[in-house]
What does this fold into?
Amino acid sequence: MSVWNLANPNLRQLVPYEPGKPIDDVARELGLDPASIIKLASNENPLGPSPKAVAAMQAALQGLHIYPDGGCFHLRNAIADKMNVDRSMVILGNGSNEIIELAYHAFGRPGCTSAVASRYAFVVYKLMAQLFDVEFIEAPDREFHHDLAAINAAIRPDTRLVFVTNPNNPTGTRIPNDELKAFIDGLPPHVMCVLDEAYYEFLENPPPTIEWVKQGARIIVLRTFSKIQGLAGLRVGYGIASPETAEILQRCRQPFNSNSMAQTAALAGLQDTDHMARTRTMTLEGRARLQAFFTKLGLKFVPSEANFVFVEVGDADRVFKALLREGIIIRSMTSYGLPAWVRVSIGTPEQMKRFEAAFPKVLVA
Ligand SMILES: *Cc1c(COP(=O)(O)O)cnc(C)c1O
It folds into this structure.
């Protein structure tokens, strides 16, 4: 008897998450110098972590024999201060991805509940639904935008989780603030809405979602240190929710889910407003330039509100592979069922120049 017969049967269907290809893998497979490779595949911060976060981590290295503070006292206080909420409303995760998992632990009872998200939303919601044996309902989208009416219509009596990604990854689209507010106000009381705001800091006129939490909206707002903070490798993200919801999520986590380096770095990074401002300015300038470049090439792209651009190239896998040979890693959207589209993260001006030089060659090849 195969060991698969002992395992959770859902695992047979589960297609593992396909991350951006690591620089090291590309170097090894193609015999390239890792230093010559640029990664525009995972929406990371090309400026690196905040220097203040790096210094704080260096100082904290000697304390690594001690377990972390499972309650994340200092970091939760700092986040609470910054957001002007009570500390009891803040939960830390091993990346905000872990908080998605905690939401399933908390609200997705196996075999008898469902979760709803938009088509072409962040794929992790679907993968975790499969793991938890929660039926996953994909609401139709509108030209790569969330269709909030369709999401609402897809909610069933057994639905417990509704995921909204704003701005959305991989498409880069946003929801107008007033429409989002009306949608949240109109949700039935039997669902918890997870509002994934991984790219919140790149928004112009962002929605006041933390205020909505304070006013009692049934939402879990997710934010992350992986994008604008440049700490993706550390795995640290957080959720803001009502004290009651946060307490429910806290009961689902491991005792030390946020490690001490992550807490130290995030605490220092949170204070480094210069680094965040520099990242934001560079990203918005790079995005405008990249979109102008795609326009010039006559390519169809979705105007982005985040730190990446989603663009139609014909054969995504071919363009992806051809760019790899140039030492540039982007992301093919084939795994999202969109084999004509790729996603390109905004890099430094130098990285974008290299991309602009290589891309037209591989496009016509
Ligand atoms: C990158 C991203 C995240 C962040 O995940 P972490 O686990 O915090 O690194 C969450 N949601 C979306 C939609 C993302 O694109």
In short: The chain has a mean pLDDT of 96.
